[in-house]
Amino acid sequence: MTTSTVLLIIVSALVAFALSFYQYLFKAKKKSPVFFFLAFLRFITLMAVFLLLINPVVTKQDYETVKTPLPLLLDNSQSVKELGQDSIAKLLSQKITSNQALNEKYDVQLYTFDEGFEVGKEPDFKGKQTHIDQAVQNLKQFYRNTSYPVILLTDGNQTIGNDYVYSFQQNTSVYPIVLGDTTVFPDLKINQLNANKYAFLKNKFPVEVFLQYNGNKTVNAVFSVQQGNSVLSKQNITFTKDKKAQAITVLLDADKVGVQTYRAVLSSPEQEKNKYNNIKNFAVEIIDQRSEVAIISSINHPDLGALKRAIESNQQRRVTIIKPNEVKSLKDYNVLVLYQPNATFRGLFDMNANAGLNTWIITGMHTDFNLLNQYQQQLSFKMTNQKEDYLASYISSFNLFATDDIGFEQFPPLEQPFGNVKLNSGTNTLLQARIRNVETDNPLLVFSESGSSRKAFLLGENIWKWRLETHVNNKSFEEFDVFTDKIIQYLATNSKRKSLVINHERFYNLGEPINITAQFFNKNYEFDENARLTIVVKGKESHFSKTYDFLKGNNEYKINMAGLPTGKYTFTVKENNSNTTYVGNFEVLDFEIEKQFVNPDLNRLLQTADNTNGKVYYPSQTDELIDFLAKNESYKETQKVKTTKSPLIDWITLLIILCISLATEWFTRKYNGLL
Question: Are 383 and 419 in contact (CB under 8 A)?
Answer without folding.
Answer: yes
